[in-house]
Amino acid sequence: MKRKVIQIDGEKCIGCGLCTNACMQGAIKLVDGKAKLVSESYCDGLGMCLPQCPVDAIQLVEKETEEFDQTRFNIKLKSTSQGSTSCGCPSVQTKVIEKDFAGQATAESQPSYLKQWPIQLHLVSPSAPYFQNANLLLSADCVMAAYGDFQEKLLKNRAVAIACPKLDNTQGYVEKLAQILSLNNIKTIVVARMEVPCCGGIINLLKQALRLAGKDIPVREVVIGIDGQVRL
């Protein structure tokens, strides 16, 4: 079949290894101090390794080659999700928060609709029970502070993962999202972001994850202005 795969220029390669860390499929290995593509069937053609190369030794080319081995990728997702991310710290321990919201609201306070812990995309476990059969909210973290109706209009009845596409080290975020989408029956996704250009990266992360996971899930994008008003 004809599709895109990476091509590595061995003359340019300096053997830094950054591409091997960026490749989520394990398709690139260092051999004799140079990056090598292990198998074209391992390469998903997304090119996540390209921006990591400091000498532009990697490019995407379209050619007749083997089909991407999705089965191998699914096995990798399962094995990765079963690994423990907990170090004993309460910040990373998966927890479902059971709540009865009926009658909790008063004139002075409103209930929190958060039903899980943790919420940071970096910390959540893809196999956490709160993701199963869930409606997912993927939110830029600034939205929670800027949008007054965040709890009622966005968080209510949704599992949540928050991230900052500008300040976070987003390496691995696409794979983490792909794991969540692959291992759970996610029904719908709402992406909430700020109107500033750098925040648009969060929707790009999701698009790549959907493609990587081979999923077609309804997505709604909500854009919040810095004045707290809904732009989209």
From TrEMBL:
<dbReference type="Pfam" id="PF14697">
    <property type="entry name" value="Fer4_21"/>
</dbReference>
<protein>
    <submittedName>
        <fullName>4Fe-4S binding protein</fullName>
    </submittedName>
</protein>
<feature type="domain" description="4Fe-4S ferredoxin-type">
    <location>
        <begin position="4"/>
        <end position="33"/>
    </location>
</feature>
<feature type="domain" description="4Fe-4S ferredoxin-type">
    <location>
        <begin position="34"/>
        <end position="63"/>
    </location>
</feature>
<dbReference type="InterPro" id="IPR017896">
    <property type="entry name" value="4Fe4S_Fe-S-bd"/>
</dbReference>
<dbReference type="InterPro" id="IPR052911">
    <property type="entry name" value="Corrinoid_activation_enz"/>
</dbReference>
